[in-house]
Every structure is written in structure tokens, then in C-alpha cells.
């Protein structure tokens, strides 16, 4: 670990924890600074007018034909006999926190010395950061809900974190402004894709941490909650240190000017 690392771990868990630190905090955020400044969150309960459109069967069939004629890949939409349709959506994962995946290590049993080399499985979890800009294509139905898309993405990456920690957003660009809207759990992403057409500027999907609204603390384990308290304390101390340093520099410059 780096001398500047403030990672906290129970002494009995040290052998079961492996960290992959990619760099100092904040360094990875610099590239996103411009885009973050342009993004604007909108109300989850206020979809655009075109998203409220209800299509009959003939209109759905016509939209699918138009969609398939506009795309430059083989990710076509297909109409089913029951009136539903299937197709692909592309989801970009923009997660700033590490995710947890299961890991199993075989360790000697406490009885190994008496009854032979028996082993038992110890459940562990490994945390890591997903690469920035990770993109995944999903083949879904027109009735697949946003919550089911999140579940599918977590399964593909074998993430064992609670799905309620994540949210699916629609992203659109208009007048050099980026707009984000959190999708409700029951919204249907493929239906939105069909209504918007294939343009990524008109509509794209992003999965991020679910940070809007009240935090559901019941979704976290007791060790996680204790860790959050330590992290908040460290962040508070660091923020105070930066404020003191800033005011000390201002005071020094004023004294030099006198």
C-alpha cells in the first residue's frame, strides 16, 4: 500500500483482502470534469413528450423498419408474433465506486491436523473498479424493465452488490447541453430506443450509482456502514485541512502585499 493510503481493515481480514489501486484519488476524475460540468439531472417523473407516445401495432412495425434501415450494424430489432419486439440496447457503465464480486479460497480446516488435509470454502468478496467507459450490449424484449436491465448487467459482471445501489439513466444532448434522467424501475428501455431512433445523441443509456433521493441504508451490511462512517470522518478531516491550507495561503499573500 502507498504511504498515503488510509485504507482501514480488520486485522483478521487482511489476508482475505486484495486491493488494486490505480492511482491517487482525483486523478481519474480529471478527464470527466468537462462532461460533468455539462451534465444536468432532470426529474425522474418527467419523461419527454415523445417518450409518452403510444404506438399501435402498425406504427410499431413501421418504426422497426425505419430503425433497421438507419443503423450501420447488424443489431436489428425484430417484431414477434405476439406483438412484442426484441432488440439491442447499449449501456455505458459510469461507476465511480468499486464493485464487489464473489471470490472463494480453499483454506485448511481447523480439524485438518487430526483428520487429514480437509479443506473448507471461505466466502470472500473482491472489490475492483470497472474500467472507465465500459460498454455492454444487451439483447432484451420490449417489455423488459429498467430494473431488469440493471440485474442483467450485474449478472454479466458477476457483481454481488445490491441492485438498488445502481440506477439506469437516459442521456441526451441538446444545444451543447447534456441531460440525464433517471429511469423509473418499470420503464422499458427498448421502447425508448425505438421511439428515439438509433441516434446516440438523442438517447443513450448509462448505469451509475443511485445517488438521487434518500439513501437506502438498509441495503448495506453492518461492516459497510461502519466503513462509511470512517470514510466520512476522513473526508471531513481532509476537507478541513484543505480549507485551513487555502486560508493560510491567502493570509500569507496578504501579509506579503502589506
UniProtKB/TrEMBL annotation:
Residues 25-51 are annotated as: Disordered. Residues 214-258 form the SARAH domain. SUPFAM superfamilies: Ubiquitin-like. Keywords: Cytoplasm, Cytoskeleton, Metal-binding, Microtubule, Phosphoprotein, Zinc, Zinc-finger. It is found in: Cytoplasm, Cytoskeleton. One of its GO terms (cellular component) is nucleus. One of its GO terms (biological process) is Ras protein signal transduction. The keyword Phosphoprotein applies. It holds the Pfam family RA. This is RASF1 protein.
Amino acid at each position: 500500500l502507498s504511504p498515503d493510503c488510509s485504507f482501514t481493515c480488520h486485522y483478521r481480514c487482511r489476508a482475505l483482502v486484495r486491493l488494486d489501486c490505480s492511482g491517487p484519488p482525483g486523478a481519474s476524475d480529471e478527464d470527466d470534469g468537462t462532461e460533468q460540468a455539462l451534465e444536468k439531472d432532470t426529474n425522474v417523473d418527467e419523461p419527454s413528450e415523445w417518450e409518452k407516445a403510444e404506438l399501435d401495432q402498425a406504427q410499431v412495425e413501421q418504426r422497426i423498419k425505419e430503425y433497421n434501415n438507419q443503423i450501420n450494424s447488424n443489431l436489428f430489432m425484430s417484431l414477434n408474433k405476439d406483438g412484442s419486439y426484441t432488440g439491442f440496447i447499449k449501456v455505458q457503465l459510469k461507476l465511480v465506486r468499486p464493485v464487489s464480486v464473489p471470490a472463494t479460497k480453499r483454506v485448511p480446516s481447523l480439524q485438518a491436523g487430526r483428520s487429514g488435509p480437509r479443506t473448507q470454502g471461505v466466502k470472500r468478496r473482491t472489490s475492483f473498479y470497472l474500467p472507465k467507459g465500459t460498454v455492454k450490449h444487451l439483447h432484451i424484449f420490449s417489455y423488459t424493465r429498467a430494473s431488469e436491465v440493471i440485474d442483467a448487467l450485474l449478472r454479466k459482471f458477476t457483481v454481488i452488490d445490491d441492485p438498488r445501489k445502481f440506477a439506469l439513466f437516459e442521456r441526451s444532448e441538446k444545444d451543447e447541453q447534456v441531460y440525464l434522467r433517471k429511469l423509473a424501475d418499470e420503464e422499458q428501455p427498448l421502447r425508448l430506443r425505438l421511439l428515439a431512433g438509433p441516434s446516440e445523441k438523442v438517447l443513450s443509456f448509462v448505469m451509475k450509482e443511485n445517488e438521487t433521493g434518500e439513501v437506502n441504508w438498509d441495503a448495506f451490511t453492518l461492516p459497510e456502514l461502519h466503513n462509511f462512517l470512517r470514510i466520512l470522518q476522513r473526508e471531513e478531516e481532509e476537507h478541513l485541512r484543505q480549507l485551513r491550507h487555502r486560508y493560510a495561503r491567502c493570509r500569507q499573500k496578504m501579509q506579503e502585499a502589506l
